[in-house]
Amino acid sequence: MRRYLRVLFVCTLLVFCSLLYIFNQLVSSLERADHRERAPRTRAVDTGLSGRAQDDRCGSDSVTHWEPYWRISRDVCPNHCVTDSAPRSAPQDPVQLAVVACGSRLEETLVMLKSAVLFSHRHLCFHIFSEDHLHAGFRQELESWPQRFRSTFSYSVYPIVFPSENAREWKRLFKPCASQRLFLPLLLKQVDSVLYVDTDVLFLRPLEDVWSFLSRFNSSQVAAMSPEHEEPRIGWYNRFARHPYYGQTGVNSGVMLMNMTRIRHTLFKNDLAAVDLKWADLLMPLLHKYKLNITWGDQDLLNIIFHYNPESLLLMECLWNYRPDHCIYGSNCISAEHSGVYILHGNRGVYHDDKQPAFRAVYDAIKQ
Q: Is Glycosyltransferase among this UniProt entry's keywords (predicted)?
């Protein structure tokens, strides 16, 4: 009983410290905004276009006749999150953030984007992939944010796009549309690097902190993720997986930093062919071979890829992807105990029920 009380105390202390940091950063952001000149309104994806014109340019009809993804020679639609969209005074390129939202994830995604804006000091560029019926909701909400925050980011909204063959299978793999992240290097061809996050992620530090991991990549690394588990005794992959996985306990893809230029040009080792394959040639054969053996969809496919290419992955500490798994069975994220939580990942739906009150408290604080 005493052990459980100690674990509960540690978790409560971590969340309390994180909440203090959130409110401190929020106050600082508001104070900086009051002294900032009102920047010109940043152009969004539909600037200067009527709703119908936007649908004509980026709607799903424009992609239904695409050839298979390995033959695609252009983006889903012109990319507006490029360097020259940032304010002229910005000393650095924007931080590129990508998210995929389907079904009922509109509100959750907006809270995630709000956390990114609240804490970051650099200009941000959001790449939002969502079902067509959610596009208007994203534009309406983002455009309604106060100008002092609206001027700190630009955004593009894209349709959900999968290879014409097996499109239904890709879309239904694990959660709705989640496997879209696998195709980001093939769709955002003008973007060099991007930070992909799930909709249930909250930033408790500036995005540029995790973005800085790009400078730590060696010549062979193309992506960075955190382990799925810190404690092998409760690990899922090492106990139940029926496919290859990265390292001892696998990796979690809810926070994934990608150098997409490298991903597009790297030849990956695999168990599918006698030769190394490019990313575009790897995904479909992987799905065909392992679709009956994978449980977590696209995350499992990423684990398979980096199992055969461990030199291509940089491993981040668990405080960059802190989940209920790190405290539900005892506190097992040592880096978070020492430094606090940097990125909170509320999987298992804990933002919307009472199973993890601390996670929900952080979500509600940022939402409000």
A: yes
pLDDT 10s digits, 42-83? 333 333 333 333 333 333 333 333 344 433 333 444 445 644
Reference 287, options 186, 196, 168; nearest CA is 168
* pLDDT at 318 exceeding the cut of 50: yes
pLDDT tens, residue by residue, 323-357:
999 998 889 999 999 999 999 999 989 999 999 99
Domain ranges in the chain are 95-367
Those residues whose C-beta lies under 8 Å from the C-beta of residue 21, and which sit 6 or more positions away, are: 204, 340
Strand pairing category for 124-130 and 95-101: parallel
pLDDT on residue 171? 74
Q: Is the per-residue pLDDT at 301 higher than 70?
A: yes
**Residue range 151-180: mean pLDDT, rounded:** 84
